[in-house]
Amino acid sequence: MASIWHGDVKEMPTQREFVVFSTPVSAYHRLRTASSWQDLSFILFDEVQVQDGLMALLILYVLDLIVNDAPLAKGVRVLLMTATPFGPAYSMLKSALDLMGVRTGSVTLSPCADWSTFARLPLWEVVNQPDNWHRLSEHSKVITALILMTDYLWVYTYQSASILIFVAGEWEVTSLRNAIAFSKELKAVRWQYHVQALWGRCPWSVESNVRERMAEHSFYSNDPALFTILTPGKGEDGWTPKVNGMINCSEQMDVDKLGFLNKGLSDEVSNTQREGRAGRVADSLVLHLADAVPPSITWIMPYAERIKVSLAAMDLQFTNDIPGLSVADRKDAPADLVKGDIVFKICVVWDLAGLLSLS
């Protein structure tokens, strides 16, 4: 989020406490162009278990300045925050900090005195698993679980269901939504329900309506059951949805070194994040359609991200190791741009558009 701070040269340093919310890209531009960091006390990086190359670079860049007593970073402290302290990105970042000689302390945040805790109950602990469960297709399993969860919540807790359903990607959102719409089993139930969806490229107006409807849903009412299908990128991190159920289709999209998408079973990091969306505002039922696979011990950035992070590191004059980006890949990235005449082509296009200035 854009915000005025001392990095804007037309503003004097602020004399009051303030917080700047920023994406990694925005933080990169702010930090590299700031004339001073003297009004920054802390830089907090949240969700450090996420495989985000630019965020990993920024963490190491700032800490490298602090370790080497750079005047720019004098008085700045770094906080790394996560509720899921494992997985490849987290482990590789921790190893990089050890190599830099960074000594980290740890603080566990405990709930305040008036914080309410809620249970996450596995579905098969409160209802019997159908005898034919293992013969059902994925869509049939989801539909069966929706019916069992909704019935249980209404009969035993007197609550109208609001259930999250995690799928791997945008195509899976559409496919499951159609399966629910044409389900004979759901057409036979006695209660009403509404289906909505969130995916990576959905318009902001759609996302706003979905979140608003979830917030307005009343558990203790005759509101129709609410089923929200969503992709991991929209649902895993950093929010507290008003739900009392979660179904995880136990799949995720992984991006390989060349940037191709591959669908596989979700790992323990993803399953923990998905289950963590439930049980925040009410006791909740949870179901994973398959066991999680162990997280990968390595993280390799996709090609496009390697190019981006390599160029950003060159711009920041940062030469240390970066998690997910080998030294060989860092050398190859600028070479690829030159080899493929990308830089030359950019200059030609800008020149034809009258936008090129070499002065």
Summarize the structure.
The chain has 359 residues and is an alpha/beta fold. It contains 12 helices and 10 strands. Helix 2 runs parallel beside helix 3, helix 2 runs parallel beside helix 10 and helix 10 crosses helix 11.
Structure description:
It is a single chain. The protein is α/β, with parallel strands linked by helices and 359 residues long. Helices cover 38% and strands 14% of the residues. The strands form three sheets. The protein has a six-stranded parallel beta sheet with strand order 3-10-7-4-6-5, sandwiched between helices. A two-stranded parallel ribbon has the order 1-2. 28% of the residues are buried. The N terminus is likely disordered.
Oligomer: single chain
Helix-residue proportion? 25-40%
Q: Which regions have little confidence, pLDDT < 50, spanning 5+ residues?
A: 1-7
**Strand-residue fraction?**
5-15%
- Name the overall outline: elongated
* Number of separate helices: 12
Pattern of helices and strands: HEHEHEHEHHEHEHEEEHEHHH
**Main β-sheet description:** 6 strands, parallel
How many beta-strand elements? 10
Please give the alpha-carbon distance between the first and last residues. Answer: 32 Å
